[in-house]
Write a structure and sequence with these properties.
Strand content: under 5%
Structural class: mainly alpha
Radius of gyration: 19 Å
Order of helices and strands: HH
Number of domains: 1
Low-confidence stretches: none
Keywords: Membrane, Transmembrane, Transmembrane helix
Shape: rod-shaped
Number of helices: 2
Helix content: over 70%
Distance between the termini: 48 Å
Mean pLDDT: 75
Length: 54
């Protein structure tokens, strides 16, 4: 039973690290691209979600 709880803990730690790295990487990408570039790409015909994602 203890082996299984250690295994579950390792999986949880791995998922936490993966989520944090994805969030950090997307933050770096967005800061590099910047809001000015995003506003240039998006036009007024797009939905609000695409304005945010662009």
């Amino acid at each position: 039973m203890e082996k299984q709880s250690n295994h579950v803990r390792e999986i949880g730690q791995f998922l936490s690290v993966a989520i944090v790295s994805v969030l950090f990487g997307s933050t770096l990408i967005l800061s590099a691209v910047g809001p000015a570039r995003a506003s240039e790409v998006a036009n007024h015909d797009c939905p609000a979600a695409l304005h945010y994602l662009a």
